Amino acid sequence: CFELHDEGITGLADPSGLFLTRRDVAVPGTCLTVTLEGKRPLVAEVQALTVDSQIPSPRRTTSGLETSRVSMMLAVLEQRGRISALGKRDIYSATVGGVKLTEPAADLAVALALASAASDTPLPKNLVA
């Protein structure tokens, strides 16, 4: 990753900072994960939000994540995790900074963010899944 300055383009030693939200307290619906971008490991943040739906077919919106994988994790959380509220809620899930997470290793972070959002319980702020 590179950064554009007045002096020109410079390489970033640690581009993970572009894909994280800085905060002092843990917030429900967020989880960190590590992914590979080429040969570089990056720490990325997954965010999820669940709200009561006002329509018969709740919305499922994703950004930076594969919609089919998020849908599968919602089904697993509802069936095996016994989080019954998910079927009647609008679900919004995204990555910070526009990074795209396609590898299955990120599924745990997505599932934890979804469960955290559904229960309105923050995960430890330094947890990396």
UniProtKB/TrEMBL annotation:
GO terms for biological process: recombinational repair. GO terms for cellular component: cytosol. InterPro entries: Ribosomal_Su5_D2-typ_SF (IPR020568). It comes from the Bacteria. This is DNA repair protein RadA. It comes from Streptomyces sp. SID7499.
